[in-house]
Specification:
It is a single chain. Helices cover 56% and strands 5% of the residues. By secondary structure, it is mainly alpha-helical. The chain has a two-stranded antiparallel sheet with strand order 1-2. A hairpin with a 4-residue loop joins strand 1 (53-55) and strand 2. Helix 1 packs across helix 6 (118-141). The chain is flat.
Length: 148
Amino acid sequence: MHKIIIPILLFVFIAGMAKGVSDTLQFHYGTSVFSSFQNEQWWNPEVSWKNKYRDYDNGDNREAYLLSRSLLVWRTDAWHLAQTIETGAWVLAVLFAIRLGYWRRITQSREGGEGGWFGGMHVARFFCASILVFYIGFLALYGWLLLS
């Protein structure tokens, strides 16, 4: 494997891990390790979305602080932070691929023709594998994820 692809795959792996965290928070919060963490207002997506607002429960739906509902939403709860990390990692992976000249190689077919997607499928498979490694492998290995 070329050394040129290592930083790209690292960012794809980080994106997969962040996707695993955000999916766990959104769909399996109650049975995951995150439900045992002390700051439920940060981790629990059932209530953490209200962190964007000053006092949502009492009808005050103004921003909690400047840009808390848009640019700085990643600071309001764990789910938005994981989504931001995932998006940022994907952007960095693509930028590294373009900068290092690898993008042309992964988007062309083995015969060198235009419009190939075989190489791009390797990156997609690696992303899916990184989700599986974190979401199922790592969390289940340590008993942090209860599979039901």
